[in-house]
Specification:
Layout (H helix, E strand, L loop, with lengths): L3 E5 L8 H14 L4 E5 L5 H5 L11 H4 L10 E2 L5 E4 L6 H8 L7 H12 L4 E5 L6 H9 L2 E7 L6 H15 L8 E7 L6 H14 L12 H5 L7 H4 L4 H19 L1
Parallel strand pairs: 1-5, 1-6, 2-4, 2-5, 6-7
Antiparallel strand pairs: 3-4
The structure holds adenosine-5'-triphosphate and magnesium ion (MG).
């Protein structure tokens, strides 16, 4: 099976992208998948979330500008089968600098080719920054599909229509003809509130089977785990958050094998 590349994206900030990228990656690895977690956000939250330090020069930045190979940027984590390309603040400059280069939307996709060719990974999960800037568009161009976390709140759906429009543009422009939404996951669900239940119902009505069955509950353990540099299954395996991400990982695998 060729390596599948999934970008976790939503231009809205704080909706659970990084929490999903980190925990889904760790759960997929625990299910036996060889996973590369790729931190493409200068905030580097996924990097610290799996317990890696921010090291100068360790990010994909220079490779995106044409220097060196992404294979050299891959680092092991403390968790079996989970490896990572970390981020650091230098990635901030990548948006601006890439804008001036030719092929500026395909830099990441080209840089990933040797990693795909190496067949070292079953899945590559990219954590995107909260924008539709050039880094995110590069992730879109390099991906087989997008995993979109939607926070259970009133404006949850607003982001999706904008993202759909960008997807259509990238497909039409030939940047990535295979690009589609792989799945939508509802995050920070609180079953006690009427609004949360209504939002999930509305999103399911509109997006149908694109929406994963698994809903991620709001839980303090999920919010705490990053400060210990551990994905939730290694921090508190018996929490509701851990159970949810384990189920989501199974759904992602089933959907990805069915494709
Ligand atoms: N299910 C959850 N339960 C409780 N807290 C959560 C949950 N999911 C995420 N959080 C917390 O909400 C905040 C935002 O989550 P996260 O960093 O994953 O979002 P993001 O979309 O990656 O943000 P950004 O757009 O800044 O990259 C974090 O403090 C995180 O710990
Ligand atoms: Mg994030």
């Amino acid at each position: 099976m060729p390596t599948k590349v999934i970008a976790v994206a939503n231009q809205k900030g704080g909706v659970g992208k990084t929490t999903t990228a980190v925990n889904l990656s760790a759960c997929l690895a625990s299910l036996g998948q060889r996973v590369l977690l790729f931190d493409l956000d200068p905030q580097a939250n996924a990097t610290s979330g799996v317990g890696l330090e921010k090291i100068e020069g360790a990010s994909a930045y220079r490779v995106l500008l044409g220097e060196g190979s992404l294979l050299e940027k891959i680092r092991p984590t403390a968790f079996e089968r989970l490896e990572m390309i970390p981020s650091e603040v230098d990635l901030c400059a990548a948006d601006l600098e890439m804008a001036r280069m030719e092929n500026h939307l395909q830099r990441l996709s080209q840089a990933l080719q040797p990693v795909l060719d190496s067949q070292r990974f079953d899945l590559i999960i990219i954590d995107c920054p909260p924008s539709l800037g050039i880094l995110t568009l590069n992730a879109f161009a390099a991906s087989d599909g997008l995993l979109v976390p939607l926070q259970c709140e009133y404006y949850a759906l607003e982001g999706i229509s904008m993202m759909n429009r960008v997807l259509g543009q990238l497909r039409d422009a030939g940047v990535n003809p295979r690009l589609e939404i792989f799945g939508v996951v509802m995050t920070m669900f609180d079953g006690r509130t009427k609004l949360c239940n209504e939002v999930v119902g509305e999103v399911r009505n509109l997006l149908g089977t694109k929406v994963f069955e698994t809903v991620i509950p709001r839980g303090t353990k999920l919010a705490e785990a990053p400060s210990f540099g551990k994905p939730i299954i290694h921090y508190d395996k018996y929490s509701s958050g851990s159970a949810a991400y384990e189920l989501l990982a199974q759904e992602v695998l089933e959907r990805s094998n069915a494709a």
